[in-house]
Structures are given as structure tokens and as C-alpha cells.
Amino acid sequence: MTILVIGGTGKTGRRVTAALDAIGVANRPVSRRSAIRFDWADESTWGPALDGVTAVYLVPLGTTLDDAEVAAFVPRAVAAGVRRIVALSARGISPEDGRERAVRESGVDWTILRPTWFSQNFSEDYFLGEVLAGELVLPPGGDGAHPFIDAQDIADVAVAALTQDGHAGVTYELSGPEALTFGEVLARIGDVSGRSIRVVDVPPADYTELLVQGGFDQEYAEVLTMSLTAMRDGHDAALSDGVPSVLGHDGRLFGDYVKEAAGAWA
Q1: Which of 85, 170, 206, 232 is most buried, judged by most C-beta within 10 A?
Q2: At what angle do helices 254-261 and 182-193 cross, to 10 degrees?
């Protein structure tokens, strides 16, 4: 078995690669800057990346909802000899969404992972710059909580699905073991970093525009704005059982994550 890890330098991809290395499973982490390049926007890079692989950890492009690339890539992967696909999706995505539909209809073993927002969004990208600046900009809402998930737990579930039997045809809803408000999250980051961080509300349209300026396409920016608004209004606090059902134990607590990530906010 050789596993292609798309997004091999990303939050989950590099952890999947490390976990596969630890158990001695051959893998090929790829990105736009890897020795064997992979670029969703350049189909000429797909063939070399797929050469000789039998399974794929599939991470779609993270700034758009246009899944035409995934729909085109999956049959190419199957034709190249891939027999197992584990696809990273997201909570709230419909089975009829383009990325999920292409994987489900691939004709090979598939597993779909639907995680909540990552804890690492506060330390590796997305929210990091604002945390360092002391002001987390969000669309307005209430004091709702969300079960942020550690990227390591996503990676561990992905590796289990990639290397073990019993996960084919299953969609796993993944979350952290506790739901926290943004205020609680920022307080815990403040405890380990010594920083004072506050939430700044901006109108939804302004928040969407900030995301577009940051590289997201308009449609995806609008979806993220709606997701954060719903989260803050308390509509996304439910815990999911995917992590313990696969790994046999609860996921990592947010407090453990902030201790490990403290250097990011130094």
C-alpha cells in the first residue's frame, strides 16, 4: 500500500503523513511545493502524484465550494489503481455536495470525514493573525458554543480508515469532546499566552468581504459567514461520536491543545 496524502503540508495532511510514517506505511505527501507537485488547478500534476498509489487521503481546495476538480480527480484516481479514498469534508455538508457525491459514486472503498472547526485554526492560520493582534473579528451573534476538534484526532481517524478494514461506506461526524464559546476559547488561549484577546463584531456583509479579500471566493465566504453566525447563535454545539467510535477514546480537550500550541502565540 502506498497512500497519496493531498495537502501534505496542511493541518491534517502533515499529521496523517507523520502517523503513517510512525506505523511504517508508505505514503506520498503532496502539495504545490512538494517534490512531486500536486495542484488542484493544474491537472497535469495529478498523474505523477497518482502513479503507483493505492489509496488517497483527499483534501479539497480550501477556499472555494467549487468541487469540479474533485469530481474530475476521483475517476482519474480510480483509473490509476486507487482502491480506497478517505475524503475530508465538513460538518453540515450534504451527501449531494459535489465532493461527497464524487467519492460515494467512485466504485471503490470510501470513507468521508465531517469534522467541526479545527482547534488549530487559532494557532496555524485563519484566526491566528487576529489572535496575535488581540482582536478576533467575527460576524455578530450570541454566546453559543462549538466543539472545536483537534486536527490530530482527525488525522488519527483518517489513518484508521486508510489502513484498517471496517470503515468502507461510512461517514464519520467528528467533533471535540466539549463545546466552548469564543469567549472561553480566547480566555484559555490568554491563560497560556498572557495575551488579552477580545471579540469584535462586524456586519455579516463586511465579514464576507474580509474573507474575499483574504482569498476566499464569494460563495464560500458567504457560507463561512453563515456558519460562524450560526455557531455564535448556539446552533452548532452538538457533540459527535465519530472520534471515540473509531479510536476507542474521546478526542483531545481544548485545554490540552492550547498547552501544546502555546508557542504559536508567544
Answers
A1: 85
A2: 40
